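FAQ: What does a ligand-bound record look like?

Like this one, built around flavin-adenine dinucleotide:
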Amino acid sequence: MNIAIIGAGPIGGYAAYLLAKAGHSVELYEEHAQVGCPIQCTGLLTHDFDQFNLPKDSFLVNTFRKCTVSSPHFSTTINQKEYLVSRPKFDWFFVELAMKEGAQLHLNHSFLRKEGKNLVIRDSAHKTEKIISPDIVIAADGPLSKTAKAYGMFHPTRTNYIGIQATVEGKFDPGGYEAYFGKEICPGLFAWIVPESATIARVGVATMKNTKHYFDTFMQQKGFTVKELQAGTIPVYCSEQVLQKENCYVLGDAAGFVKATTLGGLVPGLKQAEAVAKSILEGKDLEKEVKPVRTRLWLHLKLRNLLDKFSDEDFDKMVKYMDQPRIRAILEQHTRENPWPIVLKTLFREPRFLYFMRYLVLDIGHFLP
Ligand SMILES: Cc1cc2nc3c(=O)[nH]c(=O)nc-3n(C[C@H](O)[C@H](O)[C@H](O)COP(=O)(O)OP(=O)(O)OC[C@H]3O[C@@H](n4cnc5c(N)ncnc54)[C@H](O)[C@@H]3O)c2cc1C
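The answer part, i.e. the structure of the complex:
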């Protein structure tokens, strides 16, 4: 089969690898001149990444053993192994794997439009256009996916966060990263300080509105100066997003497969890539294959809806409840990739978390599947 993948990000690259390895002819189209640039990601990975059995040495920047979570007046430290990656190297790792299996990479090639069953691709280096007619198209072209839109698959209710991040110099504990919650700091999400080393960190915020204002305020509060600035769009998971139509599959950020609580899309996207490959290679039902990921992302979205209603006092309560040995033990046993055991066990061991469920009563519509 002739497969065209639009977008050589990590998720498109991984899908290209899985499909080329199975013997298909895979063409990977990337609009930029380089894979992984510009950088639009912090590069945090939970240790669930280990389940993919892939070597990390070519892209690993740091390994954390703890995360400190702060509300306006409290903080707690959760011990957990996590990875920090270099996104250009991470993206290239997957594309190189795919190329070793025979996939063809076309840099400076962007998807322009669909004409009947054909796709129009622009080669910006040579200022030419060409028409391709693949058997299968995979839209892995990020959160604003032009390809998904061309196939009429981009769900109209989808929304996005804007993330702004800087590389800064300072003095850091390279063994852990920090997340700051609170309406003043970063309404709707959190600000982060993620050290690459003892002297360099990635610092950022993500919000739906006024991101630059919150970013500037956080940088000022912490006394950081921008060394290198990055910004990007992060999709909010949408349960109604269709994943396949005609001969087109939508994958990764293009499908909005991102955890709505933390905006991490790498592990869910890689899992979805495996499900899409299985569906193409073995004829498996895609929705059935992807259901475990969807169920987790659904709960993340519901938690997001709850967190969006939190006052600063609620964040203080949340962090105070988290800072108990019996709750920390749960948070250290499970990664955030699957929030189900975390939610169920913490509610059981600390019934005061039920206090937050009052928002459920105020807005029951959000909790209907
Ligand atoms: C500030 C910020 C911080 C983040 N931090 C984290 C984090 O710490 N951990 C985590 O798991 N996730 C994080 N994310 C989310 C993560 O970056 C995404 O989930 C991930 O990049 C999704 O990969 P992807 O391959 O689906 O899409 P992308 O990485 O967006 O790749 C899409 C590719 O398609 C290309 N493309 C776009 N349009 C076209 C076109 N028309 N034709 C051809 N090519 C095209 C793009 O150039 C790009 O290379 C963060 C995002 C942001 C913005």
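Follow-up question: can I read anything off the structure? Yes, for example: The mean pLDDT is 95.
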